[in-house]
Amino acid sequence: MNFTIGKFTIDFNYKGTTYRMLVDQVFRSNDVERFMISAGGKAVILQSNRPALRSSGMKTDKITWTVYEGPANWPEPLREAIKIIENKILSIEGQRDHWHRS
Predict the structure, then answer these.
(1) 70, 92, 101, 35 alpha-carbon torsion, rounded to 10°
(2) Does residue 101 surpass a pLDDT of 50?
(3) What's the whole-model pTM score?
(4) Which end of the chain is less congested by CB atoms within 10 angstroms, N or C?
(5) 3-state SS string over 76-89?
(6) pLDDT tens column, 10-39
(7) What is the 3-state secondary structure (H, E, C) of 10-59?
């Protein structure tokens, strides 16, 4: 299965300000993938276990995300970015929204 995701941008509102961030899949293996999220000269790399889940046939299990590199001190924007990234992945994979984050 091909887990490659092309570059894309995400927009979200945080505390009344709209942010546009570039998302780029910078690494992938059969077990993990990493996305660099960057904007305004800052970047963070998030790692997910989506390839391992998909390889083992678990299409609806919740993806686990961790901060691989960069600051983790802005949890609300990161949660929002992850939600948008997951929805983008789902649209690419042609699935419904099975992951819900609180």
Answers:
(1) -10
(2) no
(3) 0.81
(4) C
(5) HHHHHHHHHHHHHH
(6) 988 888 988 899 999 999 998 999 999 998
(7) EEEEECCEEEEEEEEEEEECCCCEEEEEEECCEEEEEEECHHHHHHCCCC
Closest by CA to 50, choosing from 2, 9, 101, is 2
Which helix (H) or strand (E) segment is 91 a member of?
helix 75-93
Give φ, ψ of 91 to 5 degrees: -65, -35
- Total residues found in the chain within this entry: 102
Tell me: the pLDDT tens digits for 36-83?
Answer: 999 888 899 999 998 898 888 776 678 899 999 998 777 788 888 899
